[in-house]
Amino acid sequence: MAQATFYFPKGFLWGTATAAHQVEGGNTNNNWYQWEQEGHVLPGHSSKVACDWWSGRWREDFDRAAESGQNSHRLSVEWSRIQPAEHRWDEDALDHYRQMVRGLRERGLTPMVTLHHFTDPLWLMHLGGWEYEGVVERFEAFVRRVVEALKDFVDLWCTINEPNVYASVGYVLGEFPPGKRDLGSAYRVMTNLVRGHAAAYHAIHTVQPEARVGMAVNYRGMLPARAWFPPDRWVAGALSKTYNDFFPRAAHHGRLNFFGRRQSIPQARGTQDFLGINYYTRERVAFNLLAPGNLFSKRFYDPRTEVSPTGFIANEPLGFYQALKWGLQFGVPIIVTENGVEDSEDSLRRRYLIQHIHQMWRAVNFVWPIEGYFHWTLVDNFEWERGWTQRFGLWELDLETQARRKRPSADLYAAICRQNALSSEMVTQFAPELLESMFPG
Ligand code: IFM
């Protein structure tokens, strides 16, 4: 077996990503808490305490991140805390976030702050949420407040997390609030998300000219189930264009394309200083005339691929390489804003992590402009409608006691972060079954 060390460029960002509602606890003034109260989250599962960050446990978790060699952290701020009512702002909440981002800096972690990660204040939902035209100016006002408050510590901003998931799961599949299944509503929401992103981009640069601003898109690999069959190729292409391309293309060209429906939003043109890619998996897509509600598709994982314990994610590292390649077309640096797998026993995660970081290293060696990687996630967190059934943390969380227990993958990731590299030694220690394929010799 050959021995080797795969280095990453100097200054590469290594961190973990989190989101306010999933870790803070006590967020009861937003649409997700309401959704939970209405019984749409798995029975017996609640976001009420989460990882208890709002009571101060962020400190110990930031210590964990710093002590394990990470040099960055991506977190989000909760709109409904900062603006609990349409005409009320909470300076204490802003101050709380100021302490958190200062806490990151003090530990040597570069903060990336996400301004919208799935949740919306209840007052906004009463106005119509992202279907309501006025959401754009309200989001812009919120963004200005946050940037003014945090700009001494933060200059890396993610406007909106996974706008494609927000729109498709909330307005097409009906599994996220508000539980709609309506393509017309989805398109209105998508349009306003693009406008909101553009308004936020310009506002951030006005307040902080040196800022770097992007959004995080959820990239899902979609391969035609039968490459030789034109209808499969067509449906996989159409879905991928709409799901993966819609938002970054809008931010690049200022143009929308929704299944052939075109619209121009000039103020969105050139509004990404970097592209955030959240990559988890890749699927096969077959044409299915009998499934109009599913956009004439049947989607499934390649049966030869290893899947995560709850069947949520197929381990498809080549899809990650393809995602990074896809990202090049937008001509801006790429930051991997999320990647990870749910695995309470940590039996797949070590392999998944090594194989994905290996693919990212291949990409970096083509001098593709990849600047950082945020693993999802630091400590097990509240996984939306799936509650606590999916454990994505490098640290396991005991919800009863709030105790954290390190999983072996945390040590693996620490070794990668500390060395800014992936080595055959690490593979020997954490996933020896990969040695032969990765280091033939
Ligand atoms: O937990 C989510 C996160 O909020 C958005 N991206 C995918 C993660 C894993 O499901």
SSE class: alpha/beta
Which percent range describes the beta-strand content? 15-25%
Rg over C-alpha atoms, rounded to the nearest angstrom: 21 Å
N-to-C series of helices and strands: EEHHHEHHEHHEHHEHEEEEHEHEEEHEHH
Q: What is the third-level CATH name, the topology?
A: TIM Barrel
Helix content range of the residues, please? 40-55%
**Hetero ligands:** 5-hydroxymethyl-3,4-dihydroxypiperidine
* Strands, count: 15
What is the CA–CA distance across the termini? 5 Å
Largest sheet: 8 strands, parallel, barrel
List the topology elements:
Elements: E1 5-7, E2 13-17, H1 20-23, H2 31-37, H3 53-67, E3 72-76, H4 79-82, H5 91-106, E4 110-116, H6 122-127, H7 135-150, E5 156-161, H8 163-171, H9 183-207, E6 212-224, H10 230-253, E7 255-258, E8 261-264, E9 274-287, E10 297-300, H11 317-327, E11 334-338, H12 349-365, E12 370-375, E13 395-397, E14 404-406, H13 408-419, E15 421-423, H14 424-430, H15 435-438
Parallel strand pairs: 2-3, 2-12, 3-4, 4-5, 5-6, 6-9, 9-11, 11-12
Antiparallel strand pairs: 1-15, 7-8, 9-10, 13-14
Helix pairs in contact: 3-5, 7-9, 8-9, 8-10, 11-12
The structure holds 5-hydroxymethyl-3,4-dihydroxypiperidine (IFM).
The site of 5-hydroxymethyl-3,4-dihydroxypiperidine has 8 residues, from loops.
